[in-house]
Amino acid sequence: DVKVTQSSRYLVKRTGEKVFLECVQDMDHENMFWYRQDPGLGLRLIYFSYDVKMKEKGDIPEGYSVSREKKERFSLILESASTNQTSMYLCASNQGPEAFFGQGTRLTVV
Amino acid sequence: GENVEQHPSTLSVQEGDSAVIKCTYSDSASNYFPWYKQELGKRPQLIIDIRSNVGEKKDQRIAVTLNKTAKHFSLHITETQPEDSAVYFCAASYGGATNKLIFGTGTLLAVQP
Prior knowledge:
Shape of chain B: globular
Structural class of chain A: mainly beta
Distance between the termini of chain A: 37 Å
Shape of chain A: globular
Oligomer: heterodimer
Strand content of chain A: over 45%
Helix content of chain B: under 10%
Radius of gyration of chain B: 14 Å
Largest sheet of chain A: 7 strands, mixed
Order of helices and strands of chain A: EEEEEEEEEEE
Number of helices of chain A: 0
Largest sheet of chain B: 6 strands, mixed
Number of helices of chain B: 0
Order of helices and strands of chain B: EEEEEEEEEEE
Number of strands of chain B: 11
Structural class of chain B: mainly beta
Radius of gyration of chain A: 13 Å
Distance between the termini of chain B: 41 Å
């Protein structure tokens, strides 16, 4: 059974802080993704990675960066958190077409 | 890049009725169209998918249809039950090495007992 685990379920951070969201998958998947989920906007792709140290921008990369030093771990970094980054963040991984999601991290920036 | 539109944004039906959710996509190269269900407070999970070489696929009470010419695909749920209440997302992908999924904006389905 595929497991995608995000390090935190809830986070509260201050404006200007550097924030790390961590995601780990245990199925040796090549591809990993970070999505942001907002009401009425669906799931929007921030960044994805198709191999260790490889990354590509998604549709809304501004204000975010990512790191993939090991195959199983994909980190989303908010260099300087802002209130408009308050959202639900979902990590996903796949090898074939089906994507498996983490449980989500609800980030609040105050 | 790919853009996926989804309608309606909310849908309320009586238990036992059918529900239909529609999506359109922009990139004719897309060849894989999954549907995900997200129950309240839970992660999205795949419920059914269809590839571009198939026009329809069924799995018990759910079915998906694809019209490649019109770039439309739809989710059909028959004999709805309260446990079908959730947010449903359609997505499109052109496969390749990354299988990057672009999602629609979601439909909140409420099944009234």
